[in-house]
Structures are given as C-alpha cells and as structure tokens.
Write a structure and sequence with these properties.
Elements: H1 2-25, H2 34-56, E1 58-63, E2 73-77, H3 84-87, E3 95-100, H4 109-115, E4 119-121, H5 127-142, E5 146-149, H6 166-175, E6 179-184, E7 200-206, H7 216-246
Parallel strand pairs: 1-7, 2-5, 2-6, 3-4, 3-5
Antiparallel strand pairs: 6-7
Helix pairs in contact: 1-2, 5-6, 6-7
Length: 257
C-alpha cells in the first residue's frame, strides 16, 4: 500500500500541474470560439486518464460506445468521483455540463467554464435558479449539444442509497430528446475526499438510450433502475478484481442507510 500511496501522490501532483499549465497555454482561446477551449479540455481529459493508467495502474474501459446516439442528447451519469467530470468528455462532440455556480467564480478556470457555455446553478437561489437552468439546458440541447448531468446532484459514495433529484426528470421533459444512461464504478478507484488512486479496471458503461416522450416520473424510474442495476454489477466486478489484487477491497466505504 506504500507504493499505491506514493503513486497516488505523484499522480495528483502531475494532474494539477498539467491543469495549471493548460490554463496558461489556453489563454489565447479567449479570442477564439468556445470550441477551442473544449479542444483543450478534451486534451486534458485524455492526458489525465493516460497518466492515471501509467502511474497508478488504473485502466479505463468503455463499454457500449456503439449505443451513443449522434446529435442532441441528455447523458445521465452515475456520479461517484471527480473522474467522470472530465472522463466522459471525449465521447461527445459538443458536451455541456450543469455545474455548481461556485466553480464559475474560480479565476481563469471559471472563466473558461463560462467561455465554453457551461450551465451554472446557484443552489441557494431556489426555484428561480432551477427555472433559469432548465431554460439554458433546453437552449443548449436545441443547438445540438450533449447535456451531461448527474441525476443525484453530487458525488455519492459507492454504496450510498440512490437519491435521484426530481428536477432531472423535468429537464428531460423540457429538452424533448433521447437520454443516454451511464453506469460506472469510478468510486472504487478515485474515491471522493481522498487523494488515493487505486489500480484496477475503471469501467464506464453506456446503456440503452431512453427515447423522448416519457413522463417525468416514468423517466426518473427507468433511468434510476437502469443506472443502479448496471452500476451494482460493475462495482461487484471491480471488487472481485481488487480482491484478487490485494486480498481485500481497499478502503471499502460503508453502506449508508
């Protein structure tokens, strides 16, 4: 475990060093279209995932890529770690995220988010902020973009009880496009609130798309069932792999009620 600690430390140093370097190198993109900064972001995503494999021994496997529809789309992903906030970027032509408004206030990084036309939400502002966010989401999707959302609203521990927000169903209804559910097991390799990065196979699985036209309740029920069932299977696979590597699952989180 000492080797894993040292590799995790090295990875985090390089991860943030790369981010700072790219933030500086990307300054000219303020004079270009938003596609220029998205190109930089996708390069950062590829490089960070490559470093994760080379340094930490964490291989990333994408399943069901052939199921990704072209054009405007809602991508509803499980959210267990920071990794999926950038790890999904390169599978979509023109992605847009819904994110915390606070991130837009970070110098340079937040400016790039606004340049890329990401959608910030002020959670403290209540219903007015949610309505504004829903309108922005619909507008961006109608321009052909792929809206990446995390239906639980925040990173959840691997075994936490699912908590899908009702507003996600309303976004789906308002946008009127296909939804692509995404399952993953990233929380076992990039746990939240720790810098440790564990070796093994981080799997992202793109599931069968849900067509437009479902009611809000039907959508929420179907997307949560699909994502949770597949995520449970991927987590079980990863834990079996970790048991083979370590003889146990490292730092396995406790299940929450």
């Amino acid at each position: 475990m000492v080797a894993i600690f040292l590799r995790s430390l090295l990875y985090n140093v390089l991860f943030y060093a790369l981010l700072v370097c790219l933030i500086i190198l990307a300054l000219p993109t303020f004079l270009m279209s938003r596609h220029a900064i998205m190109g930089i972001a996708k390069f950062w995503a590829r490089s960070s995932t490559w470093l994760l494999r080379v340094i930490c021994g964490t291989r990333v496997e994408y399943r069901g890529v052939e199921k990704i529809p072209a054009g405007p789309l809602i991508v509803a992903s499980k959210h267990q770690s920071m990794w999926e906030t950038f790890g999904l970027l390169n599978h979509f032509a023109d992605p847009v995220y819904i994110l915390k408004r606070e991130l837009e206030l970070i110098p340079f990084f937040g400016w790039y988010l606004r340049k890329a036309k990401m959608i910030g939400i002020d959670r403290a502002a209540g219903g007015r902020s949610l309505l504004k966010m829903a309108r922005q989401a619909r507008e961006e999707v109608r321009h052909g973009r792929q809206l990446i959302i995390f239906p639980e609203g925040t990173r959840m521990p691997v075994d936490a009880t699912p908590n899908y927000k009702p507003g996600v169903g309303q976004i789906y209804v308002n946008c009127g496009v296909t939804c692509l559910p995404v399952a993953l097991n990233s929380g076992l390799f990039w746990p939240r609130r720790t810098f440790m990065r564990y070796p093994g196979t981080l799997v992202v699985e793109f599931l069968d798309p849900l067509p437009p036209g479902l009611s809000r309740d039907e959508f929420t029920a179907q997307v949560s069932a699909a994502v949770e069932q597949a995520t449970g299977r991927l987590v079980a696979e990863a834990r079996a792999e970790q048991a083979r590597l370590f003889g146990r699952v490292p730092d396995a989180p406790r299940r929450r009620a």
